[in-house]
Amino acid sequence: MPRGEYGAWVSHDKHANAFAVLFDPRSQRIQRNRGVSVPAHEDSLCLKCHVSQDYERERGQPGLELADGVHCEACHGPAAGWLSTHYLPSWRTISDDAKAVLGFRPLKDLTVRANTCAECHVGSNRTGTDVNHDLIAAGHPRLNFEFANYLANYPRHWSLTAEKQRHPDFEARAWLIGQLVSARQALDLLAWRAEQASQNKAPWPEFAEYDCYACHRSLKGLADRPVTLVPGRMTGKPAWNAWYLALVPHSPGENVERRDTVRKLMSNLAADEKQVAEAARVCSKDLQTLLQQIDARPLRPDQVRELLQRVTASPPEEAVANWDSAAQHYLAATALYQALGDLGMPKQERVSLRQALEALRQTLTFPKGHDGPVGGFDPTRAAPPYQQLRLQLHP
């Protein structure tokens, strides 16, 4: 939609309303629950994500208001160097490096885009944008970001057709890059949280790192449900939140024990903060290496199918043992299914896979007005549709 980007953003994009929600009763209640006297619309912790991480620099600049919410420059970069030229035909002839010198962030690059989103939607040690357990307990929704799903549901002010012309493997590429960027960002945030705790600047353990529904669940009806034990987890110990690492692939030659080290450390509530920080940073570097390898080459249809088979290879007792794992398996399979459709999957196969995916989605959907599964997630409901999906891909 050339020249219509601003209109689409201001009319349909929730980012445009991000500052306004800080005046809502829920935002006011969160501040009261936190014991903070500063209103949400003046709180730096809120403004860094609900406006811009550079909101302080932007104060008083002509044309920029806090009321704009997460505005153009929050994502595309400071506009002083490119505002007057980015709509001209000659703009398309300028390299990304030259645009970066002008302050423009090249969001056509999926890795750059995922990094930009993850700063707020996962959290950032760089800027201190952190939705920790204290903030969640006060009423803020937890951050369970999944890049491909966000893109699929985003009210675009750009052309999806053009994106798929640039990247025929777009849906699969977005999923894979999003997984790696989000996992790396989460590990960096974990390292930062642990370092802050080691300096007595933050609480430890940080409960936002753990599976919410392990504790926040209804105890009613549990006697009628079979007990689901996740392999490798000690009964009675909280599970480290595997949302960002549930399906992240390993790089060739990567030492798989490094991720196991983080998991083992985080299964101990008394884990040494410095050891956690070091182990998380090592894993983050591994993921950065893999990201660079994947970013450099397109995915072939057979590679996308192999990815789809890989994410549905685990038996139901592992794949849908908890809501986070089940949701990640569903979102991964959906993105890769869409990619295979773009790359020529036969119609009959698409129909049967879509039916299984829809059945699985229904077991994961939260009731309206809730941020989680009321009464707790029931793996026995999710297992049959997942198994149906698995059998279709692993006959």
Describe the structure.
The chain is mostly helical and 395 residues long. The chain has two domains: 1-106, no CATH class; 107-393, no CATH class. The chain is built from 19 helices and no strands. The protein has helices at residues 5-12, 25-34, 44-50, 55-58, 72-76, 96-101, 110-121, 133-137, 147-153, 160-166, 170-198, 212-215, 257-266, 273-295, 301-311, 316-319, 323-342, 347-364, 379-393. The longest helix has 29 residues, at 170-198. It is globular and about 60 Å long. The model has no long low-confidence stretch (mean pLDDT 88).
What secondary-structure arrangement, pairings included, does this model have?
Elements: H1 5-12, H2 25-34, H3 44-50, H4 55-58, H5 72-76, H6 96-101, H7 110-121, H8 133-137, H9 147-153, H10 160-166, H11 170-198, H12 212-215, H13 257-266, H14 273-295, H15 301-311, H16 316-319, H17 323-342, H18 347-364, H19 379-393
Give a brief outline of the structure:
The protein is mainly alpha-helical and about 400 residues long.
Number of helices: 19
Radius of gyration: 22 Å
Parts with pLDDT < 50 across at least 5 consecutive residues: none
What is the structural class? mainly alpha
Any idea what the shape is? Answer: globular
Q: Give the termini distance in whole angstroms.
A: 44 Å
- On the 0 to 100 scale, the average pLDDT is 88
The proportion of residues forming helix, as a percent range, comes to: 40-55%
**What is the total domain count?**
2
Q: Total number of β-strand segments?
A: 0
Oligomerization state of this entry?
single chain
Order of helix and strand elements from N to C terminus: HHHHHHHHHHHHHHHHHHH
What percentage of the residues does DSSP assign to strands (E)? Answer: under 5%
Largest sheet: none
